[in-house]
Write a structure and sequence with these properties.
The chain is an alpha/beta fold. The protein is about 30% helix and about 20% strand. A five-stranded mixed beta sheet has the order 4-2-3-5-8. The chain has a three-stranded antiparallel beta sheet with strand order 1-7-6. Strand 6 and strand 7 form a beta hairpin. It starts with about 20 loop residues before the first helix and ends with a strand.
């Protein structure tokens, strides 16, 4: 067992707000408002998808790899959700979205547009993208899975959600569409 997971308890409710960030509590409040059930696992900060192996096992899912990308001019931003174990092929992705070369967006844009920090990138951050400046792309394999895993805008907890709830309740509520890619 990873020493970053001290308690393997799975919760189906929001944590006490004491010691939690407002942006994390806002995720739980929105999920409750939209009647989206979830399982939550609390843990030490997980900075990489590789570090989430025990989280995946305990939640019975695969945490999505979430890549926050931008064009060279830093005028177009993209959030890509893909299976955690799948290798990211920049050329394939750029070709599918008909965009020139992309790179990882700087941390200040993550915070400005999604109110998240490196290591915490998550589809839940789109609830903070009020001006719809981030285009969402989801790999077909993620869509085919019954459930998905993500962070609640902070990498000290992980959630297991039904993919259909994310697509049919969460995204429509926040007014965010998505496009499908095959990587």
């Amino acid at each position: 067992m990873n020493e970053a997971i001290h308690d393997t308890t799975l919760y189906s409710t929001a944590p006490s707000p004491e010691g939690r960030l407002d942006k994390e509590m806002a995720v739980y409040a929105l999920l409750e408002k939209l009647q989206i059930p979830y399982l939550r696992l609390d843990h030490e900060p997980m900075m990489t998808i590789e570090a989430c192996a025990d989280v995946d096992r305990l939640l019975g899912i695969t945490i999505c790899k979430n890549l926050f990308l931008c064009n060279a001019q830093k005028t177009k931003f993209y959030l890509l959700l893909m299976p955690g174990a799948k290798r990211f092929d920049t050329k394939t992705f750029c070709r599918q979205i008909e965009s020139p070369r992309l790179s990882f967006a700087p941390a200040e844009y993550m915070e400005k547009l999604l109110n998240i920090t490196p290591g915490s990138v998550s589809i839940m951050g789109l609830m903070n993208d009020e001006e719809k400046q981030v285009s969402l792309y989801i790999d077909q394999e993620v869509l085919e899975a019954e459930e998905m895993g993500c962070h609640p805008c902070i990498n000290t907890s992980s959630l297991r959600l039904k993919t259909s709830d994310v697509l049919n309740k969460f995204l429509p509520y926040i007014g965010h569409g998505y496009d499908v890619v095959e990587l």
